[in-house]
TrEMBL record:
Keywords: Membrane, Transmembrane, Transmembrane helix
Source taxon at top rank: Bacteria
Organism of this sequence: Amycolatopsis umgeniensis
Residues passing through the membrane, by range: 29-46, 53-71, 77-98, 110-134, 140-159, 180-199, 219-238, 245-267, 273-291, 298-317, 329-348, 360-379, 399-419
Entry protein name: Uncharacterized protein
Record bears the keyword Transmembrane: yes
Length: 433
């Protein structure tokens, strides 16, 4: 997955599963455009065979890795479309493996694996650097190393499936509940609604001139994102309250971290080694605290501290956070990158244990969380938190909104943790009565 996400792009945390849906319907490539969507839907329902899904995802991702060896291969349009299917399938396979580990009782390994599903994207963003800078970051070497590791990991997962099948401690696979199946299908299809929103439709709805809407392209993106976000909330509601709060927590911290991550990655863009070291330390710290018994407290504290740091950065720079970049403040940038990576990973890890008990890690942290990130990121263009503006650093001028989303994630974790604690305490009382 890192092989794909390290490709330069304007978004730091890409909702890979939501992006598998086709954004349009080209008449000559309809079948190929549907391949990523079909692959995602198949993976959601075939998680009991996650080793083979891992192999399929690696194979689909290989063309993107080969492009870095032979750039001429990147000119074929179908290659770009097919490549969109690889990372989502890998992500769903890894989520399924984490769920298996958690249900078997291997909590530390399962929680670390959950953290790495988002940690790999954060690490990849640090490798790619700022999307608009053409810097020699040693990306080819990293691509080769990670491609070899991905092939080896997929082969190992398949070769050991017999031993797992003979081990009685491995739990039997559970069928996906009907309401989660419906919610996952809806979430996978929803991103296509954003592609149906264009300037003409917005002009008719708002009764404004087309020329006026054309001058503010972020309005179209925001309306499309809002439609997807509302649909995602409905899909989460279908799945139930626990799924709703878990997906909302995961999405809030990811959307909230996008703008400050852009600032942090750009501030250390000219120090590539420091960049990936900071990201690696942050991801490792997030996995470490996420696997501890105090994961909820660490996650809440990390999200709150990250929000306070963003307020301080905004205030200390006079509302112009890119001063960190102008003044070559690489150490503050690296510390911010490490803090954000740790906070995002720790927050997402906290949502895993309860979902694993119900056997629904894949649909909730997969399609449901991804569609909320996709819709939320689109809707936030209305306040400049995403890159709808010609100014690439426009999102970092609105760190207050990002801090607010991080505080929302902290509140969701604290509230869910308090509810689960009270429910656990009430059970012995009910039994004794």
């Amino acid at each position: 997955m890192v092989v794909f996400t390290a490709v330069r792009d304007t978004s730091i945390l890409r909702p890979l599963i939501a992006l598998a849906a086709p954004s349009g319907w080209p008449s000559d490539l309809v079948a190929v455009s549907l391949l990523p969507l079909v692959a995602v839907l198949a993976a959601v329902f075939l998680t009991r065979w996650w080793p083979w899904l891992l192999v399929a995802g690696v194979v689909l991702s290989l063309p993107t890795a080969l492009v870095h060896l032979n750039p001429d291969l990147g000119g074929h349009p179908s290659l770009t479309i097919i490549a969109l299917a690889g990372p989502p399938v890998v992500l769903l396979a890894v989520l399924a493996a984490a769920q298996k580990l958690l249900r078997r009782g291997a909590r530390t390994a399962g929680l670390v694996l959950l953290g790495l599903t988002v940690g790999t994207q954060l690490f990849a963003a640090s490798l790619a650097g700022a999307s608009w800078l053409m810097l020699a970051t040693g990306g080819l070497v990293w691509h080769l190393i990670l491609t070899v590791l991905s092939i080896a990991g997929a082969a190992l997962a398949v070769s050991t499936r017999g031993a797992r099948a003979r081990d009685p401690e491995w739990p039997a696979p559970r069928p996906l509940p009907a309401r989660f199946a419906v919610a996952a299908i809806l979430a996978a299809l929803l991103p296509m609604a954003a592609g149906a929103v264009d300037v003409m439709k917005v002009s008719e709805i708002l009764e404004l001139p087309v020329e006026s809407i054309s001058r503010h392209a972020e309005v179209v993106v925001a309306i499309g994102g809002l439609i997807v976000l509302v649909g995602g909330v409905i899909a989460c509601a279908i799945a139930g309250s626990r799924a709703f709060f878990a997906a909302a927590t995961s999405a809030s911290v990811q959307v909230g971290a996008m703008a400050p991550l852009l600032l942090a990655v750009y501030s250390v863009a000219f120090q590539p080694v420091l960049s990936w070291l900071a990201a690696a330390v942050g991801v490792a710290a997030g996995c470490l605290v996420g696997a501890s018994r105090w994961r909820v407290q660490f996650a809440v504290g990390g999200a709150v501290v990250s929000a306070l740091v963003l307020f301080i950065v905004d205030l200390g720079t006079g509302g112009v956070p890119e001063k960190l970049i102008d003044h070559d403040a690489v150490i503050p940038g690296a510390l911010l990158l490490a803090l954000l990576c740790a906070a995002v990973v720790a927050v997402i890890v906290t949502t895993g244990p309860r979902l694993a008990e119900d056997g629904v890690v894949v649909p909730v942290l997969g399609p449901l969380a991804s569609v909320l990130v996709f819709g939320g990121a689109g809707a936030m263009t209305a306040v400049g938190v995403q890159n709808a503006s010609p100014t690439r650093l426009e999102p970092v001028h609105h760190l207050g909104y990002s801090a607010g989303l991080l505080l929302l994630a902290a509140a969701l974790i604290a509230g869910t943790g308090a509810f689960e604690h009270l429910r656990t305490r009430s059970k012995p009382e009910a039994v004794s009565a």
